[in-house]
């Protein structure tokens, strides 16, 4: 290979690296700005995240939280700001990733990739909403039911949650549900790549159920309510994935038939 050929291959690589740096800077900048905004209103965001606790307890006056170290609530607000910044900046980060990858894709590949880029945050938000309105209130109601009222020689046992532990619990559940709600996206992409098909998913259904419950046991707190609340929707999403994969297979068969017909003509 001549020196001119080597220089020609270096130029596109340098251009790609420059563009990658530009995309990374924009993504980091979006996250930093979102972090600053979220940190400024971290207290309000935390109060919003307390709504599932209020639903379980019956009212805001019925719940008590505390922090046991001087810096604990400050660190909790930093974690909360990072959590919110991830949500807010995700559309910008995802768009930067798409703009970097899209020029290397064919037109039909870009059209096939775009729906998954849209479906990913939508499904994550559905998972977060499921936690916020159903799973978290159920879990907190279960934890509150373990309290003990004093009387008949028994001491009072009352739940006074730490702010950091409550935030860790709801963040863990939101991420766990958000990730598990990506099941249709992951399985459909694997089907499009030819690694699996609808019949394979049907044949492996019983194993999938076992794996789902195992994952739910790892990702959720050690209570049956949270585990079932995560496992059941994920299994339903698995069933929905089978239907979506069948649609993908049907579309691919139609496209192949059209290509064969055009080739023959």
Automatic annotation (TrEMBL):
> Quaternary form?
The Tat system comprises two distinct complexes: a TatABC complex, containing multiple copies of TatA, TatB and TatC subunits, and a separate TatA complex, containing only TatA subunits. Substrates initially bind to the TatABC complex, which probably triggers association of the separate TatA complex to form the active translocon.
Membrane topology, record value: Multi-pass membrane protein
Q: Gene name on record?
A: tatC
Q: Which NCBIfam families match?
A: tatC
Q: Where is this gene product found?
A: Cell membrane; Membrane
Keywords tagged on the record = Cell membrane, Membrane, Protein transport, Translocation, Transmembrane, Transmembrane helix, Transport
Output the Pfam families linked to this UniProt entry: TatC (PF00902)
HAMAP family in the record, alphabetically?
A: TatC
Q: What's the protein called, per UniProt?
A: Sec-independent protein translocase protein TatC
**Sequence similarity:** Belongs to the TatC family.
């Amino acid at each position: 290979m001549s020196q001119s050929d080597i220089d020609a291959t270096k130029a596109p690589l340098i251009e790609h690296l420059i563009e990658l740096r530009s995309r990374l800077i924009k993504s980091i900048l979006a996250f930093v700005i979102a972090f600053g905004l979220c940190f400024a209103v971290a207290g309000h965001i935390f109060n919003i995240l307390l709504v599932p606790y209020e639903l379980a307890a019956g009212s805001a006056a019925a719940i008590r939280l505390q922090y046991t170290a001087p810096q604990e609530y400050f660190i909790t607000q930093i974690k909360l700001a990072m959590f919110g910044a991830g949500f807010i900046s995700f559309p910008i980060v995802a768009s930067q990733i798409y703009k970097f990858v899209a020029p290397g894709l064919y037109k039909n590949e870009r059209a096939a990739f775009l729906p998954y880029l849209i479906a990913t945050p939508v499904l994550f938000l559905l998972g977060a909403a499921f936690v916020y309105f159903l799973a978290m209130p159920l879990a907190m109601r279960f934890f509150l039911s373990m309290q003990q009222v004093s009387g008949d020689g028994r001491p009072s046992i009352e739940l006074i949650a730490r702010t950091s532990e409550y935030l860790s619990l709801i963040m863990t559940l939101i991420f766990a549900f958000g990730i598990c709600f990506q099941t249709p996206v992951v399985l459909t992409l694997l089907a499009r790549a030819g690694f699996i098909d609808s019949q394979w998913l049907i044949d492996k259904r019983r194993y999938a159920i076992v794996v789902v419950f195992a994952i739910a046991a790892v990702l959720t707190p050690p209570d049956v309510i949270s585990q079932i609340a995560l496992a059941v929707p994920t299994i339903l999403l698995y069933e929905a994935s089978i239907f979506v994969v069948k649609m993908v297979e049907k579309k691919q068969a139609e496209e192949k038939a059209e290509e064969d017909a055009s080739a023959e003509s």
